[in-house]
Design brief:
single chain, 146 residues, 3-stranded antiparallel β-sheet, 20% strand, flat
Length: 146
Amino acid sequence: MATPEWVKKEISANFARASRAGRRSEKSEPHASRASYDARNDALRIELTNGASITIPIKLIPGLKGVAPSDVRAVEVLGRGGGLHWESLDLDLSVPALVSSVFAGPEWMAELGRVGGLRSSAAKAAAARSNGRKGGRPRIRATADA
C-alpha cells in the first residue's frame, strides 16, 4: 500500500522542524568535541566545540558514580557532540545537561530562564495574545500576614 501524500508532507514538515531545532541547538548549547577520563583526578574531561573544556568529578555524574575506571575510560562522543555514550554501561548522557548541572546554582538557573524566556514560538505568541484578551497576567496580592 502506498503512503498517502498528506503523510509524506507531515513527515517532511517534521524533519524540517527537527533540522531547524538541531541548528539552533548547535549555536546555543554546549557540544563535546572530545571526552576522556582523567585518572589522576577521577574525573571526566569534556572538551567543547567552542574551545572551552570542563572537568567533572565522576562522583558528581549520575550513572558513573562507583563505576570502574576502565568502564569510564570507554566514553564515546555521540553524533555532533550533543551526548556521551558508554557501550559497556548502556549509558547515554546529554552534554548540555551535564554542563548545566555543574553550574546549577540559582544564578545559573536564572540565566537559563532569562535566555529561555527570550525564545519565541508561534505557540508562545498565541498564549500571550490569549492572556492579553483575558486581561493579562494576574497581579500578586499582598497577604494580611506579611
